[in-house]
Each structure stands twice: as C-alpha cells, then as structure tokens.
Amino acid sequence: MLCCKANPFQFLLLGFIFFLFVVATPTRATPATFHPHTLRFSGTFLGGKENEPLVSWDKRRHLAEENSSSLVLAAERTRRRDPLNDFKLYTGGYNISNKHYAASVGFSGAIFFIIAAVWFALFGLCLSLICLCYCCCRREPYGYSRLCYALSLIFLILFTIAAMVGCGVLYSGQGKFHGISTSTLEYVVSKAHVTAENLRNVSAYLATAKNVGVDSVFLSPNVQKMIDDIEKKINSSSNTLSTRTEKNSRDIQDVLDTVRVALIILAAVMLGLALLGFLFSILGMQCLVYFLVILGWILVAGTFVLCGVFLVLHNVVADTCVAMDEWVQNPTAKTAMDDIIPCVDNATAQETLLRTKIVSFQLVGVVDGIITNISNRNFPPVVGPPVNYNQSGPLVPSLCNPFNQDLTDRPCAAGEVHLSNASQVWKGYICQVSASGRCTTTGRLTPDVYNQMASAVNISYGLYRYGPFLVDLQDCAFVRQTFTDITNSYCPKLRRYTEWIYIGLVMVSAAVMLSLIFWVIYARERRHRVYTKQFME
C-alpha cells in the first residue's frame, strides 16, 4: 500500500487554514469587539419611560425644544470605538456630518480589513515560499495518500458548491436591496416634491389674491405688500426643499448604483473563478490553476475589504432607521435628521400660515362688504349705478368667515354659506342684465359681480384649505410622517436584504479562500498520483 510522507508545503497550507479560522472566529462581544450591529428600536420617550402615557404633541414639542441640546439620536447603537479619539467610545449619537461618527462607524468594518491584510500577506508569503522551494529544492514526486487525495477532492467540491451558493445569495440580496433602497428614495423625494408643490400653490394663491377685487374693492395696500414679502420666502423655502432633497437623493442613488454594479461584477467573477479553478484542478491544468490561485489571492483580499465596506453601509442604514424612529418619538427643532430631509424653516412656515389667514379673512370681508352694503340694499331710484343696478328679490346670504378678528377659528353662523359651496348657492341670485348693466329680472347679483365674488371665494377657500398643510409644515409633521412610514415599511426589508448581502459576501470570501488552498493541495496530490501510477507501470 502506498503511504503518505510528510510534506512541508502541505503542512504549511493546512497550518495557514487553521490560522485563518482562528482569526475569523468571533469572540465574546466587548466594547472593543468589532461586530455587526442589528436594528434595535428604542422604547423610551422624551421625558418618560416605556409604557407611560404619551404627553400631548404641543407639550412634548415644548419639552423637546427646551432640551434639544441634550437629545442624542441612536445613542446606544452608535457607541463604537472612535479611532480619531484614542479609540474611546463615541457618544455623540447619529450624525452623518460628524467626523467622529463617520470614523467610528467606519471602524466597525475594521475586522474584515484586518483579515484581508492578513490573508494577503500570509498567503502571499506562503506562495513565495512554495515557489522558492519548488525552484531551488525541486524533487521528483513520490507516493501519494489516497485519503489525502479523496479528502482534498471532497473539500474542493464542497467549497465550490459553497461559493456558488454564496454568489447566488449575494446576487439575490443585492437585487432586492437595490430595489427597496430605490423605492425608499423615491418615496422620500415624492414627499418632498409634494410639499414643495403645495408651497408653490400657496404662493400662487397669494399672488392671485393681490389682483382680486369685487366691484372695484381690493385688498388694502399693506396686505398686498405683505403678500409680496411672504411670496419670496415661500418660493425660497420650496426651492431649497426640492433642491436639497433632490441632491441628497442623487448622491445616495449614485452610491447605491455603484455598490450594485460592484456586487454584480464581484459575484460573477468569483463564481467564474470558483468554477474554472475546480475545472482546471480536475483536468490537471497546473499552470492555469496556479494562475487562478494568484488571481484569486488578490480577489479574495478585495472581497474581504468589500465585506468591511458593506458592513459599514449596513451599520449606517441601521443607525439611520433607529435615529428616525427616535426622532419621531422625540422631535426637535434642529437635529442631524436635517441632513436627510430638511424641514422648511419654522419661522417661514409660521409666517406663511399667519399671512394666509389674514388674506383669507380680508377677502371674505371684501365679499361680505359688497353683499351687505350693495347687493342686499334697496336703493331709491335717484341713486344710480354702480351702487344701484335695480337689484331685487331675496337677500343674498353672507359668506362665512372661517376666522375671527384675532384669526382664531370661527364657526359659521346661521344663514351664512360656507366657502366650499358659496359659489353654487349664489348662482340662484344672479339676474339678467341689460346693455347698461342693470338687472332686468329678479336678482341681486349681476354676472360680473358674481364672477368677481366667486373668484375671491375660490382664492379664500384655497388658502383656507391649505391651512392644515401649513400647520403640519410648521411643526415638521410631514417629515415625521415620512420617517414613520420608512421605519415601519422600509427599514425591516433594508435590514433583511443587507443581511443577505453580508452573508453572501462572507460565504463567497471564505469558500473561494479555502478553494484556493485546496486547488494547490489537490493539484499536488493529483500530480503525485499520476506520477505514482506511471512509476508502477
């Protein structure tokens, strides 16, 4: 029976495998340990504990603004070693514009960077020693072990299959991750665009209100000047909102597209490398096998680096989800969340809400003044146009003003018509007019006066209808709703698919790494087996 004698190259490779397993084996988690974080959602609220009743929004916002300087988003999750601060724990919370946060989250992928460096250095050293010994101490092959030959072939098949499975997981995960990431960005951009469009609509209503008059009665000059001032601020805020959100979206989408292309290329190259290496090893093409070993040596190091990069991306995504959830529970006037979706300036939103109420209030006052002082009065024949145009019949109902003098909400009184249906109701009070503009039939509104009143009502109702939107804008409710939807609908899938990619990368890296080693072992055993058979013959 043929025996297996000790071979220094084989022991060198097997020892290297053992060393890599020791390096890659996770240890008990400590503050200094590098480990991938999972998504966690805080159960505490500002000023209270979990399961305590929530305070009202106004009170909670007041408390948040008073304590905004002490609010740290995702504080527990972002506690990582900071290489820029002597490797002390980072305590600044989620803030993508903070260099210490960026350094700490980047350092979370250091374990894979270290593995890549160790693999590149040690395996390169092993290859150098093998080449040196092969060139300087070349000996004829002698004997081989059937057990070593069979085991190397079995492990080679298993690791090739593992590489194929890992590439499949990686490809599937990157596709799903790219899809859900793109959907998330599109949702965020659509919310910002809707908000900006609503702001522009409010600005358009205000601009139209300046030129609206009923029977030559217009808004006062000071109100018209006020409209000019607020229009500039509204347009500036809407443009800033659209521009910043669009820019952030493009930057993030570019990163996602780059990552997707890199992962697809990596999956294809590593799959091809594993299959070709297996095929060349089986066929005994040693030169091609050694070429693929050198190529794979570099690619595996790059794959480990990409593992670290994607672990960093995974942690940033998870940090963002946790920070959004905590921000929704503890909203503040100014946080790091402004770098993702900027809120419209609070002062501008508040001023816009106030000005729209004033304009709506005065437009209703203009219409009611015409109804009370002209349309519903019966003038003597000696009074001529435009005050007396032979109006007659039932009195025109007054328009309901939605605001009191102090701009607080006001309920409609009996006999008043609401802004939503006033134009329809007033159609029953229109008279037919002669060429001189006098009513020839029963009615108290000429077509021209009715059209002017309807135009004023439409503008006033439009401004009134945008009131709730401006209130939400004032306290940044649209951002809170956006973050809530992302946290509930998108974050779970983002977490799941980043895990798929992470698992796929680890499987591909480990499988191809071990395949490289067994390519060399199997090629040697096969060469010895062929030589032994020829020698025996």
What does this structure look like?
It is a single chain. The chain has 537 residues and is mainly α. It contains twelve helices and four strands, in the order H-H-E-E-H-H-H-E-E-H-H-H-H-H-H-H. Strand 1 and strand 2 (88-89) form a beta hairpin. Helix 4 packs antiparallel against helix 7, helix 5 (146-211) runs antiparallel to helix 12 (477-536) and helix 6 packs across helix 8. It is rod-shaped and about 130 Å long. Keywords: Membrane, Signal, Transmembrane, Transmembrane helix. The chain crosses the membrane at residues 110-135, 147-171, 259-280, 287-313, 500-523. Residues 1-29 form the signal peptide.
What is this structure's SSE topology?
Elements: H1 8-24, H2 57-66, E1 81-82, E2 88-89, H3 99-107, H4 110-136, H5 146-211, E3 213-214, E4 217-218, H6 221-283, H7 286-329, H8 346-375, H9 422-426, H10 447-465, H11 467-474, H12 477-536
Antiparallel strand pairs: 1-2, 3-4
Helix pairs in contact: 1-4, 4-7, 5-6, 5-10, 5-12, 6-7, 6-8, 6-12, 7-12, 8-10, 8-11
InterPro entries: DDB_G0292058-like
Transmembrane segments: 110-135, 147-171, 259-280, 287-313, 500-523
Keywords: Membrane, Signal, Transmembrane, Transmembrane helix
